[in-house]
Please model this.
Amino acid sequence: MQAPSAPAAPDPVKTAQAQAQMNKDTAVAQYGLNATNQVTPQGTLTYRQIGKWDDGTPRFEATQAYSPQEQALADLTNQTQQNLGNIGVSQSAKIGNLLNQPVTLGNEATEARLYDLGSKRLDPRFQQEQSALETQLINKGIRPGSEAWNNAQTQFGQNKNDAYNQLLLQGRGQAIQEGLTERNQPINEITALMSGSQVSQPNFTNTPQPGVAPTDYIGAVGQSLNQQNVGYNAQLQNQQNMMSGLFGLGKTALGGWMMSSRKAKTDIEKVGKLDNGLNLYKFRYKPEFGGGLMQLGLMADEVKKVAPDATAEVMPGIDAVNYTAVAEALNGPA
Model:
């Protein structure tokens, strides 16, 4: 039987190029599935092809657009920001001049005014308290000029002085706070003007990400070659097994001889060809020559043409074939 030829190895360069093209096609298909146009109340997101790259791969762009309502708000915001910017330019010079002036926390005029206001309220009270203190001392038998008298008057004076100091400290703190507020107010106004209406950004949903697996072309080629090689090896093994059995049978029958004339056989069918060119047949012996199961073998008339010494007449008109002699004649001694 002729052995099948081994499959040709694929061109690695062409195989790699085919795999690269399939990967590119898969990537383009993947992008096409993912580039889903979106429409929301705030705006739209649109994908479109804008041409191709040098290698032919499609080029795409994504465009976002506001809805008419959001676009109108965006225009107003831009106009407002421009107006505020103009105001900021004109006011920034004033703020600069204001910040260039040092902060003066001491203010004698303010303190004088506070003392004047406080004394009009505190002096009458202190006069009454001093008169009451002197009356109380005299009733206790303490006379003016005595040590106890002088100590009481000194303590009263200290309390009076502490009251005026407390008045001035509290009033001065309030005056400083008012001065800082006056200084910071222009800055706060400009800062407030700089805040305006904010445009809502469109909330686009996440683009679906369907998976498209790239074609494993290289793996498919390898698998195909693998299967071809398996089939090729199986055919070789079958041929070897068949030849081994055929010639092994020849050694055991009639001392290596088997009846092989066509006249002794029926149901003859050619099934293949041996490497030495002889045809191989399946057949049954006719009932008068033993009958039986389907067998595999050669035809004596064909063997006689290439190896006449491997044939012999065993009965009138019936030849036999020595399979061992056929193998030795055509392939050499085993």
Observations:
- The helical segments are 12-34, 68-100, 108-139, 147-193, 217-252, 300-306, 323-331.
- The radius of gyration is 60 Å.
